[in-house]
Write a structure and sequence with these properties.
globular, Rossmann fold, 5-stranded parallel β-sheet, 8-stranded mixed β-sheet, about 400 residues, 2 domains
Length: about 400
């Protein structure tokens, strides 16, 4: 079992005397199940694991009522070898989005107080895209607002990858595959299977009228990032496409944790969220490896050999967006029609700080413009990530791109 940052989150949850049943949400294949089960096995004498995706029949444990003792009676009747002891048992509900009644039971487990409950879910942010029967079941189950603690888990970041390789101190399948085989082809096969699973989810969970639009939005992402100005355009999704037709479909993909939005800002000042332009945003894949897998065969080799030319910049931008997103940072950028454009803006050491991640080692014209006019832009320090050593000249700090995860200080 590889060390993951979620372990500290789980420990803080357990140490909090007022904690409620826990729900860990995140995209598929980011290691939720293995992390939660490993934690539960280390901290509890008995662990009762229920996977509602693998065993849909487990839903019967939560009907006709949600009384805790009745649920336990039904579980032990069907699974006689399970050990359940008050004060020493943790229930793990896996893929809880597939059993709304199980999620509804969290309120009663919390009020009962004799057992711990930890849950995982892959599509818990997705609302309004269920079949009529699923909507009815969810409404009747009554999601327990105020009776659950919800945390996000992300795919493995670079720092966790270093830990996994013993460099300091994944259960994401494709990184495990690479570490075991060192074969890019095998990794690519796993990545493409995960992308196919995303598309299957779009078909399964989306309303019939939205299925094709969601897929069109998703499949347009590589082309969106190829544009010189990468603001998301609905006309790239489909010629003549309009926001009113596709905005809900894009929101579905974001709610599912597959993409991240990066918002343009009116000015380069804090608070960034207060100055964001709601209608202007770029879209990045939440996992850089999956973006590359969506491109044609041979792209991985071109990346390693430095042959990608202009698209190399898109990949580096998405990589930085991936790193910042997994750090919990919201994403912002700055663009003006005058030609000034900054890849990212972050709050760093109490200041609004531009971040550039150019594909080449050349100078960043917009960055120089911003730094030369502090009276206009209110920026005194900036960061440039790329093929550089660590260095500083005036207000500009350069550093290797792979060290972006160290920019933690807000």
């Amino acid at each position: 079992m590889y060390k993951r940052k979620i372990e500290n989150v789980l420990q803080s949850w357990l140490d909090d005397a007022s904690h409620k049943p826990l729900v860990v949400k995140g995209v598929r294949q980011c290691g939720k199940t293995s992390s939660v089960v490993d934690f539960a096995q280390k901290h509890f004498k008995n662990v009762v694991y229920l996977d509602f995706r693998e065993h849909p029949d487990y839903k019967k444990f939560f009907t006709p009522n949600l009384e805790v003792d009745a649920i336990i009676m039904r579980i032990t009747a069907a699974m006689p070898n399970v050990e359940i002891e008050a004060g020493n048992t943790c229930f793990v509900f896996d893929e809880i989005q597939d059993c709304p009644w199980a999620r509804g039971s969290l309120k009663y487990f919390h009020l009962d107080g004799k057992y711990e409950v930890m849950c995982t879910g892959s599509l818990l942010g997705v609302n309004g895209y269920k079949t009529p029967d699923e909507k009815k079941e969810e409404e009747e189950a009554s999601i327990p607002v105020g009776f659950e603690d919800i945390v996000d888990m992300y795919p493995m970041d670079f720092e966790e990858w270093l830990w996994a390789n013993g460099i300091k101190d994944i259960h994401i399948e494709y990184l495990t595959t690479f570490m075991e085989t060192k074969q890019i082809g095998k990794v690519l096969a796993v990545q493409r299977r995960i992308v196919d699973e995303y598309k299957t989810d779009m078909v399964k969970y989306a309303a019939a009228a939205d299925k094709s639009r969601i897929r069109e939005c998703f499949e347009s992402i590589p082309a969106q990032l190829a544009r010189e100005y990468k603001k998301f355009s609905y006309t790239v999704v489909r010629p003549g496409g309009r926001g009113r037709d596709y905005a809900g479909s894009l929101q579905w993909i974001e709610d599912a944790g597959i993409i991240r939005r990066c918002y343009n800002t009116e000015i380069t000042e804090l608070p960034l969220d207060g100055h964001r332009i709601q209608s202007e945003f770029k879209v990045y894949m939440a996992d850089i490896g999956l973006l590359v897998s969506m491109l044609e065969e041979g792209t991985q080799s071109s990346i390693l050999q430095g042959d990608l030319l202009s698209y190399h910049g898109a990949i580096k931008e998405n990589l930085v967006a991936d790193i910042f997103g997994k750090m919990g940072r919201k994403l912002y950028y700055y663009h003006k029609d005058s030609g000034v454009e900054l890849d990212f803006l972050i709050r760093y050491k109490g200041q609004c700080t531009p971040v550039e991640c150019k594909a080449t080692t050349g100078n960043a014209k917009s960055m120089r413009t911003i730094l030369k006019h502090p009276e206009k832009y209110h920026v005194t320090n900036a960061l440039k990530l790329g093929d550089y050593n660590i260095g500083r000249q005036d207000g500009l700090l350069t550093m290797p791109l792979y060290l972006a995860f160290l920019l933690k200080e807000a």
